[in-house]
Amino acid sequence: MNADLFLRDMTQLNSVLVTGGAGFVGSHAVEYYAEQGADVTALDNLSRVDTLETADESRNTAAYNWEYIAENYPDVELVEGDIRDEELMEDVVEGHDAVVHTAGQVAVTASIQDPRTDFEVNALGTFNVLEAARKAESDPAVVMASTNKVYGDNVNDIPVREEKTRYWYDDPEYEDGIPESLSIDDCEHTPYGVSKLSADLYVQDYADRGEVDVAAFRMSCIYGTRQFGNEDQGWVAHFAISTLRDEPLTIFGDGKQVRDVLYVKDLIRAYDAFLSDPEGKPAVYNVGGGPDNTTSLLEFIDLLEEKTGERTDVSFDEWREGDQKVYVTDIARARAELDWEPTVDFEEGVERFVDWYENR
Prior knowledge:
- This protein has 360 residues and is an alpha/beta fold.
- It contains twelve helices and 15 strands.
- The protein has a seven-stranded parallel sheet with strand order 3-2-1-4-5-8-12, sandwiched between helices. Strands 9, 11, 13 and 15 form a four-stranded mixed sheet that branches.
- Helix 6 (115-135) packs parallel to helix 7 and helix 10 crosses helix 12 (346-359).
- The chain is globular.
- The model is unreliable at 1-9 (pLDDT under 50).
- InterPro entries: Epimerase_deHydtase (IPR001509), NAD(P)-bd_dom_sf (IPR036291).
């Protein structure tokens, strides 16, 4: 699908702050706005590799992207700092007309092991961003990277059927995926889901009271170039890199769990659609590849073999806490309100990732 079909008459942003600017999603936001000629500031504390139990220096996304930005976009201001620092956030937000807030603790596993840090980064850190935006004379619009984990175990209350290589919804109400109206209450959550939901609710409150033009984007599985996934987070990249390196993979569960997947550049287009024209827009969006871009873990291993000619050893372990058998995003609100939908299908996106990794 041609992305030009979805170009709109939107305000050109002049000065953009990206929190978590060395992260996978954040670095693509930095690149997107730098390419548009905006003045861009990237803020990151470069801690990601230290907070994920299974990460190592060979998969240090932040270090790689920090260097990538410095080499390719020397006009971008790089600020090493932490969103938990209230005074710093007030200083750095001022003067920008948009904030892309992607900084956060990103893994369910880490949140279970250290829930206090998870809360302080995701909930308090987002509160600091919102307060800084509220106080800033430059009056920036804000987007926040939320997650489908805010729905907790309610997702698993939807009936599913088991097929040969995947699970799928067995309720016609959800044939287009999970809408924003699915309940967030009366269910089990993980600490990660709770901290992100807390941030998400603060976003809605600040939007509803007219304090900040802000929206939370509840993301499904985002993938793409410059992502070094691992067992804790970023499973599409983790599976692809493990296959290319001939490193064994562990699947938690039976591998039939299904996710919709969205190429990262399409995600940034969704962010920009809100930031460039936020007035009157809803404050919550489910964003992902939707029903047309889904895969199970087993199906993805087959696709990787088709694209690379390689197949690594796979073992299976118990289901992990907080996992969902099926999560597919209903993107109807984003399509209607933001004039947006995915333009990169999954096979093309995987080819882009493999080409990048082999030639980086």
